[in-house]
Design goal:
- The protein is an alpha+beta fold and about 700 residues long.
- It has helices at about 5-25, 30-45, 55-75, 90-105, 120-130, 140-160, 165-170, 175-200, 200-210, 230-235, 405-415, 420-435, 450-455, 465-475, 540-580, 585-610, 620-635, 645-655, 665-680, 685-700, and strands at about 225-230, 245-250, 255-260, 265, 270, 275-280, 295-300, 310-315, 330-335, 340, 345-350, 360-365, 480-490, 490-495, 500, 505-515, 520.
- The protein is built from 20 helices and 17 strands.
- The model is unreliable at about 80-85, about 165-170, about 210-220, about 365-385 and about 610-615 (pLDDT under 50).
- It is elongated and about 115 Å long.
């Protein structure tokens, strides 16, 4: 290793080693830990040193962060299979980045002291590793690694305090005793903290999630099992995420995409009590020719023989929960082995992660005459026309335990003269559009039911209040209804030719049952409160298109390896050719003319430098190449030899000028020597070798 390794560098290496082992073991990844250990070992040997100023170190640290930000934001597959309670994908990339930051000082000169902040980076790495939940049996190993890290960190701090006094004082009996005491105290504190964290794990998780301004995986974006009357609004206001949520490839406007449906309202929140069943992949039924081709397993939700249209959904990496599909979806195609579906027709799969695409197959003449039966002993089946009188309809007709009688009176007034469910649906839409305004920030007095207060006071509200109130009124009127949350997708991207739903397009609406046509959408929110259909700006569309193409690339690599990457690249080249095809009549001749101009200019340039056609003696060719190189060097210094000047004339011109960077006297002599060797009959191997040697001296 050359010089002896200092104790501080040795401790820094072991700190990194403990983190790498813990991180690799908890995340069940091997490639990055192996590379990190190799880099740390090479840095410890001291064979490679980098001279960097402080500002250069900062720039390098920022540059190292860029690929990890890219991997976190644009590559949903770059993460361990297990998940943590706080943004597992983010903490996974953060831990890797901080490990590299700790390895970087090992490559700096030995005289540079190691920074005291290294253990703090390591602490974040250990927290990132502990955030990954795999198996409970890994807990004791993680505790052992945490204790080892704590002890090494204490020794590192103790060593850093004595760096100015040398290693001998560090090894002195007094310092060694202090280090041992620090180590014991740190280990005891770590064990006590671990026990306390285990006892209060749930409370810590909730507090951490609140600090991150998120509502946790159990209520992400309002599309979870429980939904408050502000969850969708918070998403629309950008309090969780901003920008694109879904990209949908479809020949027609996708419109309403369902993420979750709810059947029970109590105390200002909706809940889903629908039973679930697990489906396995199907042999296509209807016949295979009627099923659009695609990748992934096919799951039939509703039997039928009509041709199907395909709608491909690309969720962004931030959308990790649920599948967003139209109400009319009769089949789902996705790269999964099993599909969960509930009695409301809501589908999901634990195998899907953010950024993985899936497809909805919709009958071209879809007529939804029912909903899933909720039976768990076979395929979901459509319901009969007597649905309202069946036990399956009870959840969709249930009312809150404490319902204000004035709400019942209001429902009777709204539905006066209405005989059919369809008429009641239109009546409830007209009532809210005419009697309420759309507004965010509704204030509900403490102790009052939000929907009751909204209805009786005729307050302005947002989509969740309109949908909730409409569902309750329809139930009072005997119409089965449910509350639905999802996205309204109707923004068009002209570059990618796909539809976009942004997070601000989150929405809530009602689905009500009609015996003649099945479940129908009821839009009680006034038009000003519905997500806008105006498109994004051109630059925003282009940037979104680029991100979508990158997501496509990583999805192809994840599903089909490098063959998928090659297929993706071939598709992009075909698209580029098709895009340029209209310009070929003008563009192709222009490209040929530019190419011919470039070739002609290069030929003239070589000819002016003395390059002739092949077939001459090797000595002549060698001299011609040597002259070309010398002309090129002088051209960089502003000394250009015109084509009409002889070598003697150019040598005289050089002698007459003064130049700070070159010795004009030696240069002029070289050109005269070259002229005598080339044209004076002295073309001997010794003369050529002398010219080459002098040219190399000028190059230095």
């Amino acid at each position: 290793m050359g010089k002896r390794v200092s104790p501080a560098r040795l401790l820094a290496f072991f700190l990194v080693a403990v983190q790498v082992v813990a991180f690799g073991y908890m995340t069940e990844t091997l490639l990055f830990p192996k590379l990190a250990m190799l880099l740390a070992l090479v840095g410890l040997t001291g064979r490679f040193r980098v001279q960097l100023r402080r500002e250069q170190e900062l720039i390098l640290a920022l540059l190292l962060a860029l690929p990890f930000v890219f991997l976190w934001r644009l590559t949903p597959g770059y993460r361990p299979q297990p998940e943590g309670f706080i943004a597992a994908g983010f903490t996974y990339c953060l831990g890797q980045y901080l490990i590299l930051l700790q390895i970087l000082p090992l490559y700096l000169p030995r005289e540079r002291p190691l920074p005291l902040i290294l253990p703090f980076y390591g602490l974040l790495v250990m927290l990132s590793a502990g955030n990954i939940y795999v198996f409970r049996v890994k807990g004791p190993f993680y505790q052992a690694m945490a204790l080892a890290f704590t002890g090494l960190a204490a020794l590192y701090f103790e060593c850093a305090r004595t760096k100015a006094e040398g290693a001998r004082r560090f090894l002195a009996a007094g310092r060694l005793s202090a280090a041992a005491a620090t180590l014991i105290a740190a280990a005891a504190a770590s064990a006590a903290a671990d026990s306390w964290i285990r006892a209060h794990q749930r409370e810590i998780e909730i507090m951490a999630v609140r600090l991150l301004n998120r509502v946790g995986r159990e209520s992400v974006a309002g599309f979870s099992k429980d939904a408050r009357l502000d969850s969708v609004t918070n998403l629309r206001a950008g309090r969780f995420f901003e920008g694109t949520a879904l990209r949908v490839i479809s020949s027609a406007r996708p419109g309403y995409l369902r993420g979750m449906a709810y059947d029970e309202y109590q105390d200002g929140a909706w809940q889903s009590t629908a039973a679930k069943m697990v489906l396995s992949p199907d042999t296509p039924n209807p016949p295979a020719p009627l099923v659009p081709p695609g990748h992934g397993s096919l799951f039939i939700l509703e039997d039928g023989a009509s041709p199907w249209a395909s709608l491909e959904v690309w969720p962004t990496p931030q959308v990790e929960e649920g599948m967003f599909l139209p109400l009319e979806t009769a089949a789902v195609r996705a790269p999964i082995h099993s599909l969960e579906v509930d009695a409301n027709g809501i589908t999901d799969s634990r195998e899907l992660v953010g950024g993985v695409p899936y497809s909805a197959l919709v009958p071209e003449r879809a007529r939804r005459r029912g909903l899933l039966s909720g039976s768990l002993d076979g395929r979901p089946r459509s319901l009969t026309d007597d649905f309202r009188g069946s036990p399956q309809a009870r959840p969709y007709l249930s009312l809150p335990a404490k319902l204000d009688p004035r709400i019942v009176d209001l429902a009777h007034r709204v539905f006066a003269g209405c005989a059919t469910p369809r008429e009641k649906m239109r009546a409830v839409e007209e009532y809210f559009h005419q009697n309420h305004e759309y507004r965010l920030g509704i204030q509900i007095p403490e102790g009052r039911d939000p929907v009751t207060y909204f209805l009786l006071e005729r307050l302005p509200g947002h989509c969740e209040y309109f949908a909730s109130a409409a569902a309750l009124l329809l139930r009072i009127g005997g119409v089965p209804s449910r509350y639905v949350a999802g996205f309204l997708c109707h923004r068009w991207n002209v570059f990618g030719r796909y539809w976009v739903a942004e997070h601000r397009d989150a929405h809530a609406w009602v689905e009500a049952y009609d015996e003649n046509s099945g479940w129908r959408r009821v839009e009680a929110t006034p038009p000003p409160g519905q997500p806008e259909s105006s498109g994004m700006g051109r630059m925003a569309q282009f940037w979104d298109y680029l991100k979508h193409r990158v997501q496509e690339l990583f999805s192809a690599i994840r599903s089909r390896g490098w063959r998928g990457a090659a297929s993706w690249l071939l598709d992009r080249l075909k698209g580029l050719v098709n895009l340029m095809r209209p310009a070929w009549p003008v563009g192709l001749p222009l490209l040929l003319a530019l190419a011919a101009y470039g070739v002609l200019r290069r030929w003239k340039k070589k000819r002016g430098s003395g390059i002739t056609r092949p077939g001459q003696p090797p000595e002549v060719l060698a001299l011609q190449e040597l002259l070309r190189q010398m002309d090129h060097r002088l051209r960089k210094e502003g000394l250009i030899r015109p084509e009409h000047q002889t070598l003697e004339q150019f040598a005289s011109v050089i002698e007459s000028v003064s130049h700070q960077a070159v010795d004009t006297g030696r240069i002029s002599r070289w050109y005269r020597d070259y002229s005598r060797v080339r044209y004076g009959g002295n073309m001997t191997p010794e003369g050529v070798a002398r010219l080459k040697q002098e040219a190399r001296l000028f190059a230095k």
